Amino acid sequence: MTEASLFGAEVRAAAWAVLVECALPEFDSRRFAEALREKPDWSALLALAEEHGMLALLAERASELEEAWVPREVRQKLKEKHRAQVLFSMSLNAELFRLLEKFSTARVEGTVVKGPVLSARAYGDPGMRRYEDLDLLVRHKDILRFTELLTAEGYEPRVPTGEIRAGKVPGEYLFKWPGTVRRIELHTEETLRYFPRRLPMEKLFARRVYESIDGHGVPALCAEDELVVVCVHNAKHYWERLMWIADVAALVARQEELDWGRTLSTARELGAERMLILGLRLAEQILRVKVPGKMEKVVRSDRGAERLAGEIIERLPSAGGAPRGVTGRALFRMRMRGGLFRGGAYLLRLTLSPTEEDWKEKSGKKRGKIIEMLQRPVRLARKYGSKNEG
Is the C or the N end of the chain the one with fewer CB within 10 Å? Predict the structure, then answer.
């Protein structure tokens, strides 16, 4: 149960209306003030903003209003939380710049996804969006070298080099700095199982650009590829945070030169058309972003995405407090892929692709790959079967 779910339905609904207003790319301070005229419960609003990753944006919007609209203690709390987020982001980004130089010297390539790049592209500020780790795309053939480099820098890898040499593929290659919450996550064409089709890594790398972050050129996916990757990531997490929908809305609104033919081509190559379409629908229906003319016919023709959007919108304000059960999760995966055959094949691959949680039993004994594959659905059923269905 989340903190926001402890408040009554009417209180949460009022807080939600304010949060949506502050997430609009076309922000209107007068309309935002009008939403605050109903005097929302600020404790509920702050809890909901925290749950949905929207504290920094709420702080920014509140700073544009006269003091009468926002209680002094609330304004101060927002400033403190925003400052803490910005300082943490700055420390992560400083580490990113340092590591990118190390990787360049070692002649291995990584591409930054989400995190500071997405924040800068969507909001014009690398500290406006909350991110708790740094995500990089790397070629799978280079993962052992990256592990050696990060280990030499003092990071603790969750996946030992012995497992890498044995051909084990985790959900991601996670590296932690001892005694802190600082994390680096490396993703390869092998780890990104939630993409319906294997990532064409060489094509993505060939289309890379350099995004300016605090005066540093950071290797990033082109904006069209980034949008598709973001939509797949959000679909993986059932679009349960307003932040993820705000990201899509802000990207579409701010990146006016997006090549929609390129975007749709990438989505089709990855089998992620519905995931992209759903992202655009949610941005339109919740945050009033107009679907670009070149995409309108494609978006309107997908009735399955329309139904999914309606269900997500209904769940969204309380999604964090109403987790999906195993059946609901499975059905969502299938519907996100579209069609019984494609959806079934996608779900089967996700269900039978073991990760590090499946490699060992509680006793620590290693298992063969076939056993890992067969045991995975049992583990998932245990993990999610007790959740409320829906």
Answer: N
Closest CA to 344 of 196, 192, 232: 196
How are beta strands 134-138 and 183-187 bridged, if at all? parallel
pLDDT for 35: 86
The percentage of residues in the chain with a pLDDT greater than 90, rounded to a whole number, is 65
Read off the amino acid at residue 203: K
Cα 31 from Cα 37, distance rounded (Å):
10
Helix, strand, coil percentages for the chain (3-state, nearest 5): 60, 10, 30
> Which has more confidence, 7 or 109?
109
- Residue 222 in contact with residue 210, Cβ under 8 Å? no
Q: Report CA dihedral (249, 252, 255, 261) to the nearest 10 degrees.
A: 160
Work out the end-to-end distance of the chain between its first and last CA atoms, rounded to an integer number of angstroms: 16
Stretch 115-121: mean pLDDT: 95
The rounded distance, in Å, linking the Cα atoms of 276 and 197 is 14
Closest CA to 61 of 118, 112, 18, 109: 18
CB 290 within 8 A of CB 21: no
CB-side neighbour CA atoms (13 Å) of 129: 28
| This model's pTM is above 0.85 | yes
